[in-house]
Design brief:
By secondary structure, this protein is mainly beta. The protein contains two helices and 28 strands. A hairpin with a 5-residue loop joins strand 23 and strand 24.
């Protein structure tokens, strides 16, 4: 009983003498009326950025949450005094810039002193450029030119009807679909692209790369990276893939018309799974190289894997739903 009483008193003392974590949050809101072809740029020292689209909208709505681990309003004011948050508009372009003047301190303090998060609504037709040092970026389905970059934090985009450029040092990149060109690069993070309607250029220095359905020209570079690339028929553009120290998987539908030019290092092998009508020109399965015409030959898919293997998967075309003259749906292939 004495020991239990001692622990109870000790716990009560700790609760009364130890400062509890406290957070204070401030909210800043702005609304900008914009023309049809709107432009939004965000440049922040840190903070998560989330941008969603509003159909038929003619405004850009911005909410910035400022949050800090402080106990009093005066302490919050002191931290915000070093924060510069500029939100301005020039014609159809809206600009958000956040800077924090880091003071000289003689003891350890957390950085950043103020955490920012952005919730922004834009018209569906809007060019967007976002740069933040630390923080994830989430973009909805937009129509326009989109450029995104951070040092750490994941980046995700919905369906982009336009062009897309994305870079992160350590974050993961997830891209649903792009009708135009897509350029995605990371230092160590992985890259996943669902559908690429235009030219696709992917690069990573250690992360896994996957391009599920490519319709345009493909250029992929990787060092210590595995990769998987699927080609949507008909194959109309060439591909240039080069990996160093990684495995490569190519997915080609059996009705595709293309030419495979595949080569590994001396100890690597080219493999094939599934049915893929082909005429061998050089090398073959189980060897370090294979050149073959698929269904008579067409655009060249060139792949080099230094220190890894290459696997080609021949798959049946995906079924599509076609409507007849009466409006009923029938399964077909493409």
């Amino acid at each position: 009983m004495a020991r239990a009483y001692f622990y109870l008193v000790a716990a009560s003392w700790l609760l009364t003498t130890t400062s509890a974590f406290a957070f204070i949050e401030r909210r800043v809101e702005r609304r900008f009326e914009v023309p049809v072809d709107a432009v939004l740029s965000v440049d922040s020292f840190s903070g998560m950025v989330r941008i969603t689209e509003e159909a038929n909208s003619e405004v850009i709505e911005v909410v910035v949450l400022q949050r800090a681990e402080v106990e009093t309003e005066s302490q919050m004011d002191a931290r915000l005094a070093l924060l510069t948050l500029d939100m301005s508009q020039k014609n159809g372009a809206v600009s958000l810039v956040a800077r924090y003047r880091k003071p000289v301190v003689w003891s350890w303090t957390s950085w950043p002193p103020v955490n920012l998060s952005y919730e922004i609504k834009v018209p569906r037709r809007c060019d967007v450029q976002v740069t933040t040092r630390e923080g994830s970026i989430v973009i909805g389905s937009l129509e326009g030119r989109v450029v995104l970059a951070n040092e750490s934090g994941n980046i995700f985009t919905g369906e982009i009807d336009g062009s897309l450029t994305v870079h992160s040092n350590t974050g993961e990149l997830g891209i649903t679909a792009v009708t135009g060109s897509v350029t995605a690069s990371t230092a160590t993070g992985s890259i996943t692209v669902g559908r690429a309607g235009g030219p696709a250029r992917l690069s990573s220095q250690g992360g896994y790369m996957e391009l599920q359905r490519a319709r345009g020209e493909v250029v992929i570079r990787g060092s210590g990276s595995d990769a998987k690339v699927g080609f949507a028929p008909p194959v109309r553009h060439p591909a240039d893939i080069e990996l160093s120290g990684g495995e490569l998987i190519l997915v080609v539908e059996s009705t595709s018309v293309c030419t495979l030019d595949l080569r590994t290092s001396v100890f690597g092998k080219v493999g094939l799974r599934g049915e893929l009508p082909r005429t061998l020109l050089a090398g073959g399965e189980g060897q370090s190289n294979m050149e073959a015409m698929v269904n008579g030959g067409g655009p060249r898919i060139t792949a080099r894997a230094k220190g890894g293997n290459i696997m080609v998967r021949g798959v049946e075309p995906l079924p599509v739903v076609l409507a007849d003259e009466n409006g009923s749906e029938n399964a077909g292939t493409r």
